[in-house]
Design brief:
55% of the residues lie in helices and 13% in strands. By secondary structure, the protein is an alpha/beta fold. It has 2 domains: 135 residues, Rossmann fold (3-Layer(aba) Sandwich); 75 residues, Orthogonal Bundle (Arc Repressor Mutant, subunit A), CATH 1.10.10.10. Strands 2-1-3-4-5-6 form a 6-stranded parallel β-sheet, sandwiched between helices. Helix 8 packs across helix 10 and helix 8 packs across helix 11.
C-alpha cells in the first residue's frame, strides 16, 4: 500500500470544504487531517497535524491566502502548498508562486481526478498547473521573450556560485527539490535556500520563470 499523503484544506466556505473532503475521502493514499476557515486556524492546524500538503484558497477573512502561503513557506518549508482559487489572473498566480506555492488550480473547472493528481504531484516536490493556468503562464513567458536582449544581459551579469549553477541545471532538467537534495547529498532546505538566492539575483517571480530563463539562455553559459 502506498504511503498516505496527509493534507489539510483552507477555505472560508464550509460548503467548499465539505465538497473537497468528500472528493478526497475516496482516495486510499490521501488522508484529510482537518480543515480551516482562516489564516490563524490554518497555522494552528499545521502546527498540530504536520501535513504533507496544504490546499488553500486565496480569499479568506483577515489575512489573505498569499500571506498564509508566505508564512507556511517560511515556518514549515517541508509542507507543499496547492492553491485552489477562483482568482486566475497573472497577479494572483505569480504572487502565489513567488511566495512558495507548488501548484495552482481554478475552482471553476477543476475535476476530482485533476485535484487528486495535483495533490500527488506537489507532494513529490514537483509543480502542477491546470491547462488553463499553464497556458496563462506560457503566454506571460512568450511576452517576456519579446523584451530586448539588454534585459537578459543585465540579468546574466549577476554571478552565480558553482553550487547555484549546478542546482539551476538540475531544476532545468526537471528534478524536484527532494531529487536535487538526494543527488547532491544536501538537505531540501539547503536546496530551497540556493533556489531563493538564484531567484533574488535574477528577480524571478516563480520557479517556472527561472527554469524558462535558464533554458532560453543556454545553461552552459550561465
Amino acid at each position: 500500500m502506498k504511503p498516505s499523503i496527509k493534507i489539510i484544506l483552507v477555505d472560508d466556505h464550509q460548503i467548499i470544504r465539505d465538497g473537497l473532503s468528500n472528493m478526497i475521502q475516496e482516495a486510499e493514499d490521501i488522508i484529510l487531517a482537518g480543515s480551516a476557515a482562516d489564516y490563524e486556524q490554518a497555522l494552528e492546524l499545521i502546527r498540530s497535524s504536520a501535513p504533507d500538503v496544504v490546499i488553500t484558497d486565496l480569499s479568506m477573512p483577515g489575512r489573505s491566502g498569499i500571506e498564509l502561503i508566505r508564512k507556511i513557506h517560511e515556518q514549515f518549508s517541508d509542507v507543499r502548498i496547492l492553491v485552489l482559487s477562483m482568482y486566475v489572473t497573472e497577479d494572483y498566480i505569480f504572487s502565489a508562486l513567488k511566495e512558495g506555492a507548488m501548484g495552482y488550480l481554478p475552482k471553476q473547472d477543476t475535476t476530482k481526478a485533476e485535484l487528486l493528481k495535483a495533490i500527488r504531484t506537489v507532494n513529490k516536490g514537483s509543480q502542477y498547473f491546470s491547462d488553463s493556468i499553464a497556458q496563462m503562464i506560457a503566454r506571460s513567458f512568450s511576452y517576456s521573450t519579446k523584451k530586448s536582449n539588454a534585459v537578459d544581459s543585465a540579468k546574466r551579469a549577476h554571478d552565480l556560485t558553482n553550487r547555484e549553477r549546478e542546482i539551476l541545471r538540475l531544476y532545468a532538467d526537471g528534478f524536484s527539490n527532494q531529487e536535487i537534495s538526494s543527488r547532491l547529498n544536501i538537505s531540501v532546505r539547503t536546496v530551497e535556500t540556493h533556489k531563493n538566492n538564484i531567484m533574488q539575483k535574477y528577480n524571478f517571480r516563480s520557479t517556472v520563470e527561472m527554469v524558462k530563463f535558464a533554458i532560453r539562455n543556454n545553461l552552459s553559459e550561465i
